[in-house]
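input
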Amino acid sequence: LHDKGRFARGTSWRRLADALFLTEPLWVVSSVLVVYLSVVLEASRQWMVAGLAVALLPFALRLWQYRRLTQRTPFDLPIMLLLAGAGLGAWVSPKGEASLESWLSLVAIICLYYTLVNYPRPRLLIKWGSVAGLLIACAIIVFTFSGSSYVSSPNWVNSWLFDVGASLPSLPQPGNYGAPLSLDTHGTDLTLAVAAAICLGVALFGRGWTLRGAALLGSILLLGVTFANTDQSLLRLFSGESLRGRMVLWQGTLDLMNGPQYITGLGLGYWPWAYNDGIVRTGFTHPHNAYVQLYSDTGVIGLLALALALVVSAHLAWKVLRQGRGHPYFGLAVGIVLATVVTLAVGVVEAAPTGIPVVAKEAYHYVISPAAFLLGGMLVVLHRLGLEGAGEASKEGGLRSTS
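output
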């Protein structure tokens, strides 16, 4: 009887663990949003700690259930190097508290990456994750553009977004921030461009004309909004005006990187203080280059992590794309690869793929961009789905030859 009771209790715990694993993306995404919003809205640090604790919970559950923290993934080594480089950058930063906040946002988004790659039902993840990602992206876009001073060019798209945002209930604003809260707007443009690239891949190579038609319409709309909100910036970029200004920022950053800064960087998220002699409010908030920003944040360790991640990404993309139409989600795979290329290209002229400044009247915060981790996680999931599809196809071929 004692053994039967112990077995029943063990079975109940396993059922609870299975239910938690099945719903893991829901509560991990929610906890990561709590971490980010606690920074953006300057909430109590307790909210960040609570959100991070929930995001870390799946590691303990997997250790208890499967005797391992996570499945091995191709990005494990780059992630460990990035964590080390960012931790060293936070350690040497003169603004230790702000840099620790940035480092915790990095830990939170890494937790989300491992939730993606460990989820036991990847097809379900892709189906509902696409819907959730689209809704979150729309919320970010409307929140950023609603009443924002970023609406600089008088076109109908900006006016329409402004009207949509103005019609929504007012979101809470902390005392330091004016209305509206000013996020890094190029991060919003990156979100639009990434979503447009994914939709374009599905439109070109997706399965089913209904899905492809909807994806094509979404891609056109997203690209239209992106170009409408970056038309002036693109003109200045191609004319060479903004590029010359960016090169001054890049060279100025490299000039600051001397002595031990080669190894440690200037400090995680410390760039605006270092470049503007401690006065952030009226100066530049980022160097307009994701790779320079990464070097400033994490030193050569971060650059090494980036180099390894690029090699891994190229290898995974090649394996996924070479399967062609035989891959169960080939259209989505093409979209993810296109989005990765777009992110790398945007990184040459903007820091958004690395980190996102949150600027206020009397405050500056810096959170790690989730773009690279989400795209990398999707590459791993799609690669595994391709391997599963190839395995199922080989089994079917073996059964046919036997019969």
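quick obs: Confidence is low (pLDDT under 50) at residues 1-9, 147-154, 177-184, 391-403.
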